[in-house]
Design goal:
Elements lengths: L1 E3 L3 E6 L2 E6 L10 H14 L7 E6 L4 E3 L4 H6 L2 H20 L4 E5 L2 E3 L1 H8 L2 E5 L3 E3 L13 H9 L1 H10 L3 E2 H6 L5 E3 L4 H13 L3 H14 L4 H15 L3 H11 L10
Parallel strand pairs: 3-4, 4-6, 5-7, 6-8, 7-9, 8-11
Antiparallel strand pairs: 1-2, 2-3, 9-10
Helix pairs in contact: 1-3, 3-4, 4-5, 5-6, 9-10
């Protein structure tokens, strides 16, 4: 199933939705219209019972997303710039809070808001041609889509400060070394690697994955004792489900479980 809009291409495979940022002529940079298109798709996915993961990528071989559209930015008033930042911040929070895993397939250049989309995702898989960085200080601003908060949580405070203070770009190898991405693949293997992961996610219990994501994301923000309490409550949600009984039954009968998200 393929549904093509000018700015965002939507496709379904392996119980995953692939969302492709489709402005390759300008390195898939973010203008208001693209942000709104992405926001609408993410909002719709909150209520889907059949989709098990989301893959976000960029059109073409050159760029994942080069950040904000600076040509559009130059025409905006200060109030419109504030509106843009609030829009991207809210969008990336919605991506992080989706009940299903989000995978960024970083297929090339990912700068500023492009890296911030990847940071808001659960898993980042990069092409070996990828270049990532929060380069905003070089434009005399700071990351405004959550970059100052998510980057240190993912790679640690000291390295995050170095990258943000200098605006330095990192290649795929360094991104992997510092834990910014989960894996690096040749460009021709990138989407299949992400789809293979989506297929593995689709074999698991939907409620279990939702609760695991919730427990990790909420628990990491607090102390261990509170985190363990969050985990305990999240585990409790899974106990009365039909899926849990199906998992045990399938194990006993030596067959693959058929989970329904119930």
């Amino acid at each position: 199933m393929t549904d093509t809009h000018d700015l965002l291409i939507k496709e379904e495979k392996n119980q995953a939705v692939i969302l492709t940022l489709n402005r390759p002529a300008v390195m898939n940079c973010l203008n208001f219209d693209l942000l709104y298109a992405l926001r609408d798709e993410i909002e719709a996915l909150q209520f889907s019972d059949t989709i098990r993961s989301v893959i976000i990528t960029g059109a073409g071989e050159k760029a994942f997303c080069a950040g904000a559209d600076l040509k559009e930015r130059a025409t905006l008033t200060q109030d419109q710039v504030k509106q843009f930042i609030v829009t991207i911040r809210n969008l990336l929070t919605a991506i992080q809070n989706l009940k299903i895993p989000v995978i960024s397939a970083v297929n090339g250049i990912a700068l500023g808001g492009g890296t911030e989309i990847a940071l808001a995702s659960d898993i980042r898989i990069a092409s070996d041609t990828a270049v990532m960085g929060l380069t905003e200080t070089r434009l005399a601003i700071i990351p405004g889509g959550g970059g100052t908060q998510r980057l240190p949580r993912i790679i640690g405070v000291a390295k995050a400060k170095e990258l943000i203070f200098t605006g330095r770009r990192v290649d795929a190898k360094e991104a992997l070394d510092i834990g910014l991405v989960n894996a690096v693949t040749p460009p021709e293997n990138l989407m299949n690697t992400c789809l293979d992961m989506a297929a593995m996610i689709a074999e698991t219990g939907p409620i279990a994955v939702e609760m695991a994501k919730y427990a990790i994301d909420k628990g990491i923000e607090t102390d261990l004792a509170t985190g363990l309490a969050i985990e305990s409550n999240a585990y409790r949600v899974t106990i009365p489900t039909e899926d849990r009984i199906e998992g045990l039954t399938a194990f006993r009968e030596k067959r693959k479980p058929v989970y329904k998200g119930k």
